[in-house]
Design brief:
Length: about 190
């Protein structure tokens, strides 16, 4: 079947790569990138990670993550689900309990942000395009995660001057639809 026989069209690797680089450099949502680049959202894939309170990566697989009977904390870019808990949208009408939840949620979730900051500072090659075959990049990133965990286990400190301070990758602020279109607020509540 060729591109004319379906509603789908093949995209050149260069176009996919350019869209990915633009996404990494601007930190917009995948929905925004797909609209801007005229590509289906399903064209893009990204990995999620699970980190513990010691900034060690527990799961770096691009699939279901976590442990049975546990929850994962996500940021405001994600929808609240039965396994992923996100902060309340602060529209100025949060209860004291909801404000406290957001405070504790943020204080807890910051550990993953610290882990990624240390991770990218420790392995500076990850801040530039990795010039290897695409199919082996997951193995390379996995190896870096394992080495990161070993360094954290032995208390390896990063020089202050090497710590990442670039805020280029900040995500788009609260996406309203993620807060209003779900049935799992009872878990968070």
């Amino acid at each position: 079947m060729n591109d004319l026989e379906t509603s789908l069209r093949g995209l050149p690797l260069e176009q996919k790569f350019a869209a990915t680089i633009w996404w990494l450099g601007n930190g917009k949502t995948l929905r925004a990138i797909s609209e801007l680049c005229d590509m289906a959202e399903s064209t893009f894939h990204y990995a999620s990670s699970v980190c513990d309170h010691q900034r060690k990566f527990l799961n770096i697989y691009c699939d279901w993550a976590g442990l049975p009977n546990s929850y994962i904390l996500g940021d405001s870019d994600y929808a609240n689900t039965d396994w992923l808990l996100v902060p309340y949208c602060d529209n100025g009408h949060l209860t004291i309990i909801q404000q406290y939840y957001n405070y504790v949620h943020s204080a807890t979730r910051i550990r993953i942000e610290q882990a990624f900051g240390i991770f990218k500072s420790r392995w500076r090659i990850l801040c530039t395009p990795i010039e290897v075959e695409t199919k082996i990049i997951p193995s390379i990133v996995s190896a870096y995660c394992i080495l990161h965990n070993i360094c954290e286990s032995y208390g390896d400190e990063i020089e202050e001057s090497l710590l990442e301070t670039d805020n280029t990758f900040k995500r788009q602020e609260n996406i309203e639809e993620n807060y209003n279109d779900n049935n799992y607020t009872f878990i968070r509540d």
